[in-house]
Amino acid sequence: MKYAVKEIMVGLGLAVIVFLALQGFDITPFLFLGVMVFLLRFMMDSRTNNKRFEMVGGHKGTTTKIPKVTFKDIGGQDVAKRELQEALDFMSMDSQIQKLGIRPLKGILLTGPPGTGKTLMAKAAANYTDSVFVATSGSQFVEMYAGVGAQRVRQIFKRVRADAEKANKSSGIIFIDEIDVLGAKRGQNTSHMEYDQTLNELLTQIDGIKVSEDIRILVVAATNRADMLDSALMRPGRFDRIVKVDLPDKDGRLHILRIHAKGKPLADDVDLDAVAKETFSLSGAHLESVMNEGAIQAMRARRSQITAGDLREAVEKVMLGEKLDRKPSDEERRRIAYHETGHAMLGERGKYGSVSSVTITSRGNALGYMRQNPEADQYLYTKNELLERIQVCMAGAVAEEVVFDQRSTGAIGDIEQATKIAKQIVSAGLSELGVVSSDLPGSILSKTVSQIIQEQELLVFDYLRSNLDQLHRISQALLEREKLSGDDFRSLMQLCA
Q1: CATH number at residue 302
Q2: Are residues 263 and 280 in the same domain?
Q3: Of 104, 142, 160, 192, which shows the fewest CB atoms inside 10 Å?
């Protein structure tokens, strides 16, 4: 009806202008006035549309719905869940809080790598406290118009209170994903002060949360760049508690795999514990993708169950990418086979049983690869362990030189990794330089790194030349089969011993 009235008025206006033109009147002033009104109205409508706050992932009415995610659906984060639940208990323990004089938390910051479950934990928090859940991201507060971001901050706090009243609930959770976009250190954006104004308004709104309010509000934010956040945002009284949501350990990965295995028909040969061991450094999102890719692999093969082979293929696909149709020449295949065999032989020498697979099949950016699994999750390394890792990195190039008398460009990535490990040795004070400062001259650092790598190369040369029969036998088997499992590789090594 509103739009119909507008259309009628516009039509009448045009009819009057046409009538006046036919009567001989000069309609130029009317046309000029009409154009000015149109432009002014267009600018006002654009400004209004830009100020309109859009909620993430939902249409009108969805923000009052409590997410179905619970803490039981989140695996591998027992410490983070326990710390978060303790903070959430303050929202439902009014009498105990008042007796002890506790100030309820206003904000909780979830930090950690991407894919570790920060958003899931925020949704589970809303379910745990039976709170209204309003979700957004930091980028939705950023706008070129001055004052728009600050208004959107006010809108979201007003929205959560209104939704809680409408749903007859006493608490609401505001979840801000990627808060580093909104809460970055002030003064970094010199072009205009919109970023700083938006952050100032967020600080003001968090400070305005009162314990005595009928509707208790908790701000939960997530970021993987906590170092970028403004110190005023991180101080007590705003984001009171920082919960680290880190990559899961082996037990955590096993828990996550079991969660995502529900509803999937697994064959008898599937050992999720073995899959958890092979997936060191993968996040929960990666592990979900492993189970999903395993199911896709089974569907491609027209099998009714997911086998251990499907999951092994899925792990390699998630880690390295899909198989490629590259067809190297026979000479290149021989070089790749010796290169990967060199990696595997030194990897197995350092830690027996660590080689999981060796292949000359191209995946992602790799023409071939050797994959190792640690015996257990490891977070600290000794000097000898780091030197062994450098040997593994350089073994591919050295194997090429031993057999073909020259190296290839296929070792570029290996050299970069070896250099990174050597720099780690220097910075940790494990080199002959001893403890060094952060401003160590680049020439000294470069010389020391080169020396470390060259010393390990000589050891690799000696080992491969002493075991040349193994190198030839395993490389030949790799050329024939294209891929060797860890067990097959070790069997070949024992035959050649």
Answers
A1: 1.10.8.60
A2: yes
A3: 192
